[in-house]
Amino acid sequence: MKYHKILLNWIEEGTCLEDLSVSRPISRAPWGLPVPNDNSHTIYVWLDALVNYLTCVGYPNTKFSKSWPPNIQIIGKDILKFHGIYWPAFLIAAGLDPPSTLLCHSHWTVCDEKMSKSKGNVISPNEAAEIFTADGLRYFLLREAVPHNDANYSNEKICNILNTELANTLGNLVNRCMGKSVNPHGTIPEPKADDIDILSSNEAHKLIEHLENLPTIAENAYNDYNLHRVVDSVMQTLFAANKMFESHQPWILAKEINTNEQAQIKLNAVISLGLESARISSLILLPIVPRLISNLLDSLSVPSSARMWSNCKYLNTGRKSTNTFGLKQENPIFFKRIKLNN
């Protein structure tokens, strides 16, 4: 909405609707394409560059229509005028449809300063990936990049987010449910609708409410291109899952199994509800960190056929059996905590 309003203001002011020169004297731009029938001028670089969007999909051959117009075009805020006003005008003048949606995003700053070669604060993605892993860097960039505001990059911030959310929240929930003290055989009980009745606690009820609402909240956020809100909604659910786990003290239930026949039933309900939270949360995060989440879903015995958006619904696991499933590796670590070298 922010950049849409900026475009409307430009149009209402009228300055961007005046005649636009699409050429420059050859003395200023000798490297440009020559203007037909006028060797003293070359095509203005922005007109030339924008046409590349068409030529890369085959224009002017008719096959280009299979890829045009695109459903969405993503740009940075510094080129909004050219892509939000001039580019659609060029296309319409040529009898072509403009992109259906223009997604304009803000920029990254580094330690609250504009990234600049002269300042020497340009970030190398390869070096950052070595420190935080490629999956960790991807998660941070997509999680923190709010479209309407500049996002700030710092090693300390990345480390804190990855450790807090991936390692301590999602990873820790899975490790708790699969720990030898509460789940010595590494089984994954299939969740049941009566788990809530078995546990009968405020924490369990709140978690079920989160799980039932999460897919709709996340889908709306995805449709609005607000990936940070997707992650926020997932983290709120996982916080509720960890709170439920702590409140029922499964480590005590595990010790009471031999003397209390209800202990095993409650323990299974705690584990299944915790792992169901991890399953649904993982499916929702799958577009953000596909490789990392795919590995976790493999460990949770979620078949590839059950990784559709419809499977984000509570209890819709898509598993072919209600039997328990064993993890494919012993004591898996979803995401290792990161320590920065000072």
TrEMBL record:
**GO molecular function ontology, one term from the record:** ATP binding
Q: Which domain of life is it from?
A: Eukaryota
Q: Which residues cross the membrane?
A: none
Report the record's Gene Ontology biological process terms: methionyl-tRNA aminoacylation
The residue ranges of the Methionyl/Leucyl tRNA synthetase domain are 3-178
The UniProt keywords, alphabetically, are: Aminoacyl-tRNA synthetase, ATP-binding, Ligase, Nucleotide-binding, Protein biosynthesis
EC number in record: 6.1.1.10
What Gene3D superfamilies does the database record attribute to this sequence? 2.170.220.10, HUPs, Isoleucyl-tRNA Synthetase, Domain 1
InterPro entries the record matches: Met-tRNA_synth_2, Methionyl/Leucyl_tRNA_Synth, MetRS_core, Rossmann-like_a/b/a_fold, tRNAsynth_Ia_anticodon-bd
Q: What PANTHER family does the entry give?
A: METHIONINE--TRNA LIGASE, MITOCHONDRIAL, METHIONYL-TRNA SYNTHETASE
Membership in a protein family: Belongs to the class-I aminoacyl-tRNA synthetase family.
Spell out the protein name for this chain: Methionine--tRNA ligase, mitochondrial
Please report the organism this UniProt entry assigns to the protein. Microctonus hyperodae
